[in-house]
Automatic annotation (TrEMBL):
Primary localisation category: cytoplasm
GO cellular component: cytosol; endoplasmic reticulum; mitochondrion
MF terms in GO: guanyl-nucleotide exchange factor activity
Descriptive protein name: Rap1 GTPase-GDP dissociation stimulator 1-B
Listed InterPro entries: ARM-like, ARM-type_fold, Armadillo, RAP1GDS1
Gene3D superfamilies (alphabetical): Leucine-rich Repeat Variant
Compartments reported by the entry: Cytoplasm, Cytosol; Endoplasmic reticulum; Mitochondrion
Top-level taxon of origin: Eukaryota
Keywords for this protein: Cytoplasm, Endoplasmic reticulum, Mitochondrion
Amino acid sequence: MDGPSAKKSTSFESLVIQNIENVNDLKAKLNEIISSGKDYEYDVSSCLKALLKSSDQAIVLLAVQAISEVVKCEIKRETYAQRDIIEPILSLLNKEITIEKIDLVKQCCRALGNLCCDCDTSRKLLLEINGVEILHKILEMSIKDKMSLDEIKLLTCKTLLNYAIGGQEFSDSLVKDDIIKCVKQILCSESEKEYMEDDLVCTALLMLSVINDNDAELLYESDVNLAVLHVLKETASVEVSELCLEHLHTQAEHDSVKTLLAKEGGVNLVCLRLEQLVQRNDEGDMNTDDSEVMAVMKQACDLVIIVLTGDEAMDILYKNGVGEVYLTMVKWLDSTNYQLLATAVLAIGNFARRDDYCTQMMENKIFDKLLDIFELYHGFSVRMQRNEDQIHPIDKGTVTKIQHASLSALRNLTVPAANKRIAAAQGRAAPILINALPNVDDHHVAYKLLAAIRMLLDGQEGVARQLCAHAGALAGAARWGGAGHAGAAGEAPRLLAWTARRLPAGCRALVQVEGCVSSLVNMLVASHSVMQNEAILALTLLAIHEQLSDKLVSQLLSSEIGKHISVLIETNCAKMPVEVAENLLAFLDITCKNNTIVCDYKEAKVNEALQKFVRARINLSNEMKLCINNIISIIDDKRA
């Protein structure tokens, strides 16, 4: 009953409209449809389609307005997404616009905008009928004409936005028709006004965002990005600011935009805005939801950091240690605002990519400041671990982020050899970092902590001695070596290997702490030959200095040393560097003096792997061949 009745009612309603002869009655009916809007229950698309061709312009206006209101209903939208409806509306827009026709143009733009909302059928028709070209002309006229066309400008932009959201096919047509030039003109014009039209600016910025989202590699012309920067400079709106920052952040994936923002004072502006936001928020002078303020602050902080990842931009902003942005970051190291502090620490880590900058920052005590920050926030982390049920004044994510950032910066600052010596001689860094290792529970922080200790240890025997004397720290490194998190799992055995090489006398400590040997054995099958070589050298030093003690042999066997060596050889037969091969042979030669290990090698078919290696490498020296054959013979001759 429901289906046929509804169909009959719709047909009857259409019949009623078609048979209205009095113009005023027809206008009243159309106004009734307009008032009902998306709740109008009948399908009268055929009637409205016919009325679009009426000679009475008042009827045409009401018909377009009725379509605009009815298609706000998602279900009805597809019914009206027809060429016979969209084409006449575009034809109306394609005629000369006079003051008398302004209302009609507005309603046509509204109708097209609503038809294109989440409706690819309408979008495709607009594309096929050259609708973008027509809308482009309307937009250009609304920008240049002295008539009061601000509403038409906004409605046209909203229509183009709804159209572009459909995907790259549609957004590309906007680029092709040079809509971006109009968007830039709108942004420039609005930024020069005393009061911006925020709705228009937001719509224009969203158009740029959608176009960029659909084509991630798109690089806008510099004048477009500068127009967005000028809007950011002039706006007082949190929403507009967020859209500007989002646009600039996306574009800053390109190094040329990083440099542009650095040269044009964009980062200085963002830093100033951040400080103003923090001050106003602290004083309770914001009429915006806290979450919106935090979102804008995050966007701003992220933009500062992404710009600093560009080498040229970073040089401009550092400016030999007197750059305004660099000095602001140094100032923020003392900030009580976690967002500013985290940004400052990340920024310092990026400035610390050049040795001369690192030297200057070390002289200016930036290293000491970072060490203070890490020590403080690591302390927060430890207290949080011990008192999980308590409410803490800072969230765990922030504590983790600041620890991670400070460790990364500390690591970068100790890359220059002179800075390692200074840090080691001061005597603070090694104990703080080494003592923290047993208590770290986040793998991202662990990764950076292990890397910072390894960089500090390089060339510094005293640091290696402190690490070897701390069984808990060695156990912590071993634990992360087997934890399965790529960063920490790769860094932990490297730290152990560097320790063995820097302080061979400390090899006993590595053997005594469960897991250290296993971690080194696992590094034999790392994907990088540098790490493979480090593992081989460290294990060789252990074998020499421990004289293949029972404890070492036991740990090598439990770590499946034979299987790891077989895998190492077989997966690298053709590509293993000669230096790595020579070091591996030295390790095999030493360990083949132990019968138990030789049995393990035979069971793991190390001898067969070595034979494959010889066949794969025709240019081996006679000395290497002799050494390999000798090792193969020892393993072959061993009886199980």
